[in-house]
Backbone:
């Protein structure tokens, strides 16, 4: 029996992965700094482990993951979310025969870097917005010519992002928190999730947010967009990627696909695939048939959407629309044959909820803070560079 280790359990996509691998006949383990998690509540998880948070010490975190792999005779390690950047360090260090479903850390960080990704995509001939390091003359010239987006080099969930109108002063550059200035592209926003093996796309899901908590989508609609599929296929082939890889994309009025950043990890798009097929795609890279898509075109994270619906009522703006979506959309975590993760979500998510309430922040803002990769974490050679 194949033993799979998921390196995060607190998020709904971890639950999908756990269910999928279990249904594919695997023994599923979960490692998470919280110890007790959403995925760990599933009957499909054999055991979960509390590990040190990467932000508290990368070495201790990596050693804990490696110890679980050795003690439990893990065959494949599958990163789930932002911890991917830390887990990637273990590439080639987990013993003979142990697979890690991501690229080596230098490759992962190079794409997580907002400027590094733009440089890589442009070298492939792909459309990306003009991007420069904050504090450079090129960035100031770009800001004078039109609206721009300022965002940290390493960030997720929209943290630190701001739109600066044309001609307005840019914020001061902070060496401790480097950022980029990117040309603002007006258009329709999309996100993606791709499973890739050796530069070959196994499956890609394109979706867009229908409900957001802050900058994080918590309600989703899958869409078909061949032009985005072609952009992603070109990038995956040129990069020789193996693992999950995801992009945030803007399609402008002319139909041009502009990818504004890369997430070298899984995103919520995987909820639209049949969970078992995801597992086979990861394990084999060549499933007997295409990765099947769930029949639902709309999905949601129920509890998060419930909160946004309640807030809309108090704000007296959009309440009816939120309520209709809430009552008509299937939750990503609900499974009648495995109900406890959904029913116990408030309990397993309490560490995040408590911190969010204390800071008056959104769930998404704090959900991955202890596993994020920050500027001071970067390995040699991954510092921000100006890109023309």
Residues:
């Amino acid at each position: 029996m194949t033993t799979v280790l998921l390196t995060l359990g607190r998020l709904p996509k971890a639950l999908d992965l756990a269910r999928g691998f279990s249904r594919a006949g695997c023994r599923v383990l979960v490692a998470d700094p919280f110890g007790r998690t959403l995925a760990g509540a599933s009957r499909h998880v054999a055991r979960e482990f509390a590990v040190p948070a990467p932000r508290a010490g990368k070495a201790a975190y990596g050693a804990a993951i490696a110890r679980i792999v050795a003690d439990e005779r893990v065959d494949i390690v599958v990163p789930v979310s932002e911890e991917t950047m830390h887990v990637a360090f273990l590439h080639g260090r987990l013993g003979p025969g142990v697979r890690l479903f991501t690229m080596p850390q230098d490759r992962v960080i190079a794409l997580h870097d907002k400027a590094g990704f733009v440089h890589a995509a442009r070298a492939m001939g792909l459309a990306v917005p003009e991007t420069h390091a904050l504090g450079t003359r090129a960035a100031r010239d770009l800001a004078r010519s039109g609206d721009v987006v300022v965002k940290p080099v390493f960030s997720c969930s929209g943290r630190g992002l701001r739109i600066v109108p044309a001609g307005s002063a840019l914020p001061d550059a902070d060496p401790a928190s480097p950022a980029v200035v990117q040309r603002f592209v007006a258009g329709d926003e999309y996100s993606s999730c791709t499973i890739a093996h050796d530069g070959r796309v196994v499956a890609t899901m394109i979706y867009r947010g229908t409900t957001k908590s802050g900058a994080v989508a918590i309600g989703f609609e899958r869409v078909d967009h061949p032009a985005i599929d072609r952009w992603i296929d070109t990038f995956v082939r040129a990069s020789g990627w193996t693992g999950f890889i995801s992009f945030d994309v803007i399609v402008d009025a002319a139909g041009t696909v502009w990818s504004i950043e890369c997430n070298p990890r899984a995103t919520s798009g995987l909820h639209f695939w049949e969970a078992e097929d995801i597992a086979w795609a990861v394990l084999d890279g060549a499933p007997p048939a295409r990765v099947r898509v769930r029949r639902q075109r709309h999905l949601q994270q129920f509890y998060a959407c419930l909160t946004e619906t309640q807030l809309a009522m108090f704000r007296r703006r959009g309440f009816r629309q939120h309520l209709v979506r809430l009552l008509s959309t299937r939750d990503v975590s609900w499974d009648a044959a495995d109900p406890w993760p959904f029913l116990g979500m408030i309990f397993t998510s309490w560490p995040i909820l408590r911190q969010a309430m204390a800071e008056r922040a959104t769930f998404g803002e704090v959900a991955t803070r202890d596993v994020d990769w920050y500027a001071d974490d970067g390995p040699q050679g991954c510092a921000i560079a100006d890109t023309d």
Notes: The longest strand covers residues 200-213.
